[in-house]
Fold:
Amino acid sequence: MAVSTSEKVKGGFTFRRGVHPPHRKSFSESRAIEQIQLPAGSEVVVPLSQHIGAPCSATVEAKQQVVVGQEVGSSDAFVSAPVHSPVNGTVKEIAPLPHPSGRKVLSVVITVGDEQPEPSIWRELPENCTIDSLENTTSEQIVDTIRQAGIVGQGGAAFPTAVKLVQNQQKPVDTILLNGCECEPYLTSDQRLMIEAAGPMLLGLQLAVKAAGAQKGIIAIEDNKPDAINTVFKLIKDIDNLQLAICRTKYPQGGERQLINAVLGRVVPTGGLPLDVGVVVINAGTASAIAWACIEKRPCYERIVTVTGAGIKNPGNFRVPVGMMLSDLLEHCGGLTDDAEKVLLGGPMMGPAAARLDLPILKGTSGITVLSKAEVVENKEVACIRCGRCVDHCPLNLVPTRIAHAVKARDLETAEDYDLAACIECGCCTYVCPSKIPLIQYLRSGKSMIARKKQQVKSK
Structure:
């Protein structure tokens, strides 16, 4: 039974505070997704830790032949996700290698073989795949398939998706919120996915709804993406348990806490999870991966990555094998421009700078932003003028300057008293600070210091 447009689509959703940085999405938003095929003889580096939780142990050995989708690492831990080979090839070595986190992580190095399968036809669902197929599977089967496929959140956090969706009788879920906001400037991978592959994404959302035992799914999209909004609406207008929420464009609208509050009016408690308020949030790319895992038994060995910015010659959106080297991806895009200044692993608000280019693309790598010299401004930090802008714009209503001062003084107890743990590291405070204080760096350092302190206490 079809429902009315007013019930299917609601708009004007937003949250308090936040900022409005320039979108800068014109570099890549019109570029269709391109499938990348790696040449024979090239190498991929597949880290055995690409997610929040326990790292995997290698399930292959050096000189062993592997094929696309073959498991190369796994763990028995509940919060973990297996990793798979993205190519046909030969395992060259298993060794600790540079990781985007800045650490060295045990990784499986695979040399790409001469014969590779044809690129996956992912834009359209198989003809025999309809919504009716949802009736032929159970929630347990869906969760198990997601776990075996190694699917993690593709919005950046990389939390194992199966753990999110397994039913918890003490904390029942009523809503799955699909995050299609993509509020980070420059990035457009989710936007292109919603335009080109909305079918798999929506099927993945429905599978997630069934897996979690929820009643409905809501697709949240910012109003600066009209093409994506129109495409999604045409596909959901006759599906009873899916709705579309059009959100006002503001950063960080795509943050879980902000999105849940904006769309559903619920507040996730500090230190809590969306599960505590009956919600699970999944990313657009994650939903698509769920569909392909359940329909074709395809593991999560590739993802869509935006390569953008004035510092790259040919920006675009690419379906990239997980483990492809950052340097190879940049070369595929024509290389850096003469005035390229900084490479970010993500967008400019939350993405850390890459200290080197011999790093692998991970399941959680949503974009690479290359800034030119003109886009990078060297600011000198001066004393805080107590203007309160960081407080006015913080979406969590924190007092970033006081937390930063406490961290600088190594007063971690005070930093915790001011709710450092609640910080989502969105960077709004740094963005608006007239004194150019790198507040977000201080807050991140404080979190690391507290984590080390707790680890030392635990190990005693």
Notes: The chain has a mean pLDDT of 91.
